[in-house]
Amino acid sequence: MASSLNGKVALITGAASGIGRATAVKLSKLGCALALTDVVEAGLSETAELCYTEKVIVAQLDVSNAEQCDLVVKETVEYFKRLDHVFNCAGINPTAYPILELPEGYFDKLVAVNLKGTYNVTRSTLSHLKEHADCSFVNVSSILGQRPSKEMAAYCATKYAIIGFSKSMALELGPKGIRVNIVAPGFIDTPTNASVKAGPEAVERSAQSVSLGRLGQAEEVANAVAFLMGDEAKYINGSVVEINGGLAY
Ligand code: NAP
């Protein structure tokens, strides 16, 4: 069966690594053309090479910079003549800090990238998504946007906020036929996951708290993102899809 995403155009932020990269590969397999963006352009060409399509453009984009968002989105739409799906994936994964030990600027940085960045990209792209034409947004929250964890206050604040922001967006855009959904990954094996950064023992501890007994793979999040963008999810709007292998806490 042909994919409903065949011939569509998707813009991905944070596409140089981890979940953003895996989603680029997945969407390309389904026939999407792609605008791949990231704060550092270096890893984007590697992502582009992994993709199953020639219809890829790459652009440096710091999502916390609203003017850059406008510019990159304008270039994307000029190039592809359309934009169907947006994956707001760029983000800074957490480092554990007691509240009184947060480094200067850390809280502001997380808010600027994880939360305001999603708003900036939404603001720049929204007017380009055609109404009642199966367009959608998928935004990335986290298990830490649903359940708290100590010493993660700043990150939790941004990821809880993403769910509120996205659910409100879904109510506003539903009447225009534009869907907005959220993925909430658990412990995913990417370079900046807190346990991966801490080493094998921390990974093992995280794995033990997962019912399936292992960390998730970026591709397993990508599969959910692609599902949410496609026709098979056309009555799913404002939903949070948990991809965490089953967590007991
Ligand atoms: P990743 O491998 O570090 O990928 C994130 C990408 O976003 C990186 O390439 C990073 O670039 C980029 N980025 C950082 N700041 C940016 C900015 N200002 N503008 C544009 N891009 C920026 O992380 P990941 O694990 O795939 O995470 C992707 C998303 O999933 C994040 O929002 C994260 O919070 C969320 N998430 C991850 C997990 C997990 O366990 N991995 C769990 C729940 C939620 P640099 O590397 O140059 O900083």
From TrEMBL:
It holds the Pfam family adh_short_C2. Keywords: NADP, Oxidoreductase. PROSITE patterns: ADH_SHORT. SUPFAM superfamilies: NAD(P)-binding Rossmann-fold domains. PANTHER family: DEHYDROGENASES, SHORT CHAIN, ESTRADIOL 17-BETA-DEHYDROGENASE 8-RELATED. Belongs to the short-chain dehydrogenases/reductases (SDR) family. This is NAD(P)-binding protein.
